[in-house]
Amino acid sequence: MGESIVYQAKDFSYLKGTAGFSDTLLENHFKLYQGYVKNTNIILEQLNLLKKEGKDRAVDFAELKRRFGWEFNGMRLHELYFENIGANNPLDPKSELAKKIIEDFTSLEQWKKDFVSTALMRGIGWVLLYQDSQSKQLFNVWVNEHDVGHLVTAKVILVLDVFEHAYLIDYQLERAKYVENFLNVINWKIVQARF
Prior knowledge:
- By secondary structure, the protein is mainly alpha-helical.
- The chain is 50% helix and 11% strand.
- It has two domains: 21-83, Helix Hairpins, CATH 1.10.287; 96-194, Iron/manganese superoxide dismutase, C-terminal domain (minor pseudopilin epsh fold, 3-Layer(bab) Sandwich).
- The protein contains seven helices and three strands; from the N terminus they run ααααβββααα.
- Strand 1 (126-132) and strand 2 form a beta hairpin.
- The two termini are 28 Å apart.
């Protein structure tokens, strides 16, 4: 955690006008994301200060270290989420990603069913399509909090935010409609590039 690291919030304003996502919803979500970026920088600054003061064994230092994963992952997960929406370009069924999904889930429809079922589980969090770096297996995974439940060494392929802030303004408590709309605006070119 070097002193020179300062993260900048990315500009996702180009997502305004995305079908099924009101500008109000997106603007609120962008502000929340910007808070994660800000808090990541604040924690890094405070950790560096405590180290300089020789307080790297203090309770404050330990608690900031624990909090860092929450803020950092909140920042990165939101970036991945925003990057993988905003387009209506279907997954090419002949792409390598589609072939792998079919191999691991038996069909694109079965993958979608599993992804939606994961997204509709009770609770708040994230749904991520991961690829295990060793076995190359694809998994739809529920991540309860930003910093809890990630698959170690797995690569993130697709991200869906299922915290209420991601859909409540537009969909109230109808998460299923939000998830359905999310699936319609996935930027599969970005997702395939991650794969």
